[in-house]
Amino acid sequence: MAVEKELGFGVLGLGMGTHHARAIETAKGAKLIAVCDIDEGRLNPTAEKHNVKAYKDYADMLKDDEIDIINVCTPSGMHVEHAIPALDAGKHIIVEKPVDIKVDRVNKLIEAVKKSGLKASGIFQSRTTPMNKRIKDAIDKGRLGNLIGVHGLLPWYRAQSYYQGPHGSWKGTWDMDGGGSLMNQGVHTVDLLQWLAGKVKSVYGAFGVFGHDIEAEDKSVAVLKFENGAIGTLTTTTCAYPGLSQIAVIHGQKGSIAWGEGHLTAWKIQGDNEKEEEKEMLSLYGPKEKRGETTSSDPMAVGSSGHVGLIEDMVEAINEDREPMITIESAKHAVEIVNSIYESGRTGKEVTIS
Ligand SMILES: NC(=O)c1ccc[n+]([C@@H]2O[C@H](COP(=O)([O-])OP(=O)(O)OC[C@H]3O[C@@H](n4cnc5c(N)ncnc54)[C@H](O)[C@@H]3O)[C@@H](O)[C@H]2O)c1
After folding, report:
1. Which residues partner with 259 through β-bridges?
2. Closest ligand 1 atom to 58 CA
3. Domains and CATH numbers, the chain
4. What mean pLDDT is reported for the chain?
5. Rounded to whole angstroms, how far apart are CA atoms 50 and 119?
6. What is the pLDDT of residue 296?
């Protein structure tokens, strides 16, 4: 295969953006060209560390001809506001989760992407783990039969200090974070459940502030009704001291799959090889003591490999002129579900997702 030229990346927003900068340096076919932040205390050390250009003004970074792709890593309520000018400047985009906090803005971005003919990727790194891909494959092949129950629990913890200071005060607000534990942290679980189990038709939700001095919420619960007839539950919080890991159970007519503590806990699918298959899956993705030691099968490795994979996917999407793995369209449903849960919590009524 011919060696393709490395594509140039510029990272906007240097909180999570520093993770993108490191991932770009690791990713094949990608070259970090510049970083941008209005906070010089973040900008200068990051630019020095990676030996790349530093832009304090985003408009200046957009004029840089060496940059092909912009990674948008600013607060969630600014994503579309920053993504559209990048497209206007002829840059492809990778947008951190959630794509934005409002569905109408995400729709605006989808239109802008279509018009531009450029590539646009969302970030939901949980979709890239080998374990989650195997679960999706089993569900898509109908191995669990018709789905019955789809359940996710995210009992995380954030200290009050997380919501304070120059880079914390937008978190847990309605206008910049679009919510709290559900929109910020829980959106990963929401996306994973809908990616694995299909679209959600309606929701019934409740939420409140229990353990922090914040505006939006730090605890949400919801009942989810899926288009395929399954029913599910979702719980998110940042109040569960000292922070437990995500737990999920998906069960259908013919089997059940569950995970927690960062690994697979059950793989029970009816069939002649039920026991052998479970043993094999636990040896790949189960608790450490049951697992063969390979990093490629370690679901905990998502921390860095997820972003590297999505950056490499963007490079390939551009070189092969195909859609990226996570299109903006496919990242939108999580935003629809989250906002519908909030609407239900406010009105006390079940909300249908149109
Ligand atoms: N994929 C994940 O697992 C993951 C994890 C954490 C955060 N995130 C997402 O990353 C995004 C950023 O979160 P964070 O925790 O890094 O927030 P943060 O506040 O720490 O960082 C955002 C940065 O953007 C900068 N910024 C704001 N406006 C700017 C502008 N106009 N020009 C240049 N810089 C500007 C801020 O100065 C700040 O440094 C959020 O959307 C969040 O949901 C994703």
Report:
1. 248, 264
2. 32
3. 7-125+303-327 (3.40.50.720), 127-299+335-352 (3.30.360.10)
4. 95
5. 25
6. 29
